[in-house]
Structure formats: structure tokens, C-alpha cells
């Protein structure tokens, strides 16, 4: 297997606090890779380093063979490294369809230009793609609904649809299951598998252990900013340090 993402020797401090210390990990092409750990373990900080929101104090982020450590979030997104947000950062007053179109345009500035100068063929193609993405995410019937009028679970799915519109090669999902009903969770588990099966590698930061264990091929466990375990769900579940970290946290 080849690594799509390689993290080497990452370190990030906030004042005197070491949030991430000497973190190395590799995410294989086609994997669903979990990133877990108790509260304050450093998951969000690591996520932000991978997406370019934070610059690490040391170490490197290599995406598809290129060092992207110094690149902006937008430059990474154009290369196919795309994230969703924990909160629903959507255009609340716009329809679901418009949100997905914006998701596609943000990652493809050339298309945005065509849109602005009203290239009708590009507009039609963008709308067609956005409709297909909403259908794929099982919210095609909500295309004309304003984002703000969707249920919480539907808004989270729309967030994923917006990210998918950017055609990610690596999709980072930030706690996508938060606040979902059991039924919505089951549907999202199936959807995430399908996204992977269509060729997108996935990193999943998630507190819902059932979803993590169901979905992930590999899991990296952080505690106090360090990697304490890495392996299959079964290996990680039985790892003494992981059990201790979660019991300690509980
Ligand atoms: N911007 C910041 N400024 C100062 N300290 C920070 C900042 N961001 C995170 N930290 C600290 O770094 C450590 C790791 O935090 P982080 O949010 O990455 O953990 P987490 O695993 O995502 O936690 P949670 O599961 O609660 O979201 C914590 O001690 C946190 O207080």
C-alpha cells in the first residue's frame, strides 16, 4: 500500500502548552483512517495542522508525495485535501443546492470565473454536478430548501456534500456524527463507506466509538498530544494504554 498522507515529527505548542508532540502517522490510499483520543488529546490541533489552519512548530505534512507543510488551506483544497467543519459553516440563507455549487466553485477558481461571467454551459454543468452530489448524499429532495431550514442531521450531511463538491482525494471529517439520531448515524456510516468506495481516502475524527469501530480500517490514538497506539480497530480496542487513557478520562 502507498501512503496518501505522511505526517512526520509534528509538534505544536500554544504558549507553554505542548498540544502535539513528535506525532508521526501515515494514511494509506483508500483507507478510512480514524483519529481518536480523550478530550484535549490534540485531535483538533492535529486536524488543523493537516488542513493548513495551523503551521506546526516542527515536522512535515506530505500529501501525495509533495510537502504541503507551508501551503494554505485553500492551496491544499485545490490539491484535493478537503475538510468538513465541526459546526455547520454554511450559507444559511442559501438553498442546499446553492451551498453545494459554492463548495465546487471555491475549490475550482477557474469555474468560479466562468460562473461570474455567466458561461451558461458551465453553470448548467455545475448545477448538474451539485444535484448529483445531493442525490448521492440522500438529500436530493432538499435541493431547494434553505440550509437554515434543514434539520441538524441534514445540515451536517449538507456540510459533507459541500466538501464532496470540491472533489477531494482526501476528505477529513470532523466529528460528523455529533448530534445525529441513531437512524441518521446508520445512514451516514453507509454513506462514508460509499464515499471511500468511490475512491476518496478518509480521515475521521470522531468521539462516537461505535461509528469509529464500524468504519475504520486503521486508527491512530492520541493522548496528551502523543500517539499512544496505531492499528486495526481490534488492536486498538485491546491496547492497554488506550484502555487506560479512556478509563482515566472517564
Ligand atoms: N488555540 C489554542 N490555544 C491554546 N491552547 C490550545 C489551543 N487549541 C488547543 N489548545 C490546547 O491543546 C490541547 C489539545 O487540544 P485539542 O483541541 O487539539 O484536543 P482534542 O483532542 O481535539 O479535544 P476535544 O476532543 O475535546 O475536541 C488542549 O490542552 C487544549 O486546551
UniProtKB/TrEMBL annotation:
GO molecular function: ATP binding; ATP hydrolysis activity; L-isoleucine transmembrane transporter activity; L-phenylalanine transmembrane transporter activity; L-valine transmembrane transporter activity
Gene Ontology BP terms: D-alanine transmembrane transport; L-alanine transport; L-isoleucine import across plasma membrane; L-valine import across plasma membrane
Keyword Cytoplasm in annotation: no
Keyword presence, Transport: yes
Segments forming domain ABC transporter: 5-249
One of the record's GO cellular component terms: plasma membrane
Transmembrane segments: none
SUPFAM superfamilies reported for this sequence: P-loop containing nucleoside triphosphate hydrolases (SSF52540)
UniProt keyword terms in alphabetical order: ATP-binding, Nucleotide-binding, Transport
Protein name as catalogued: ABC transporter ATP-binding protein
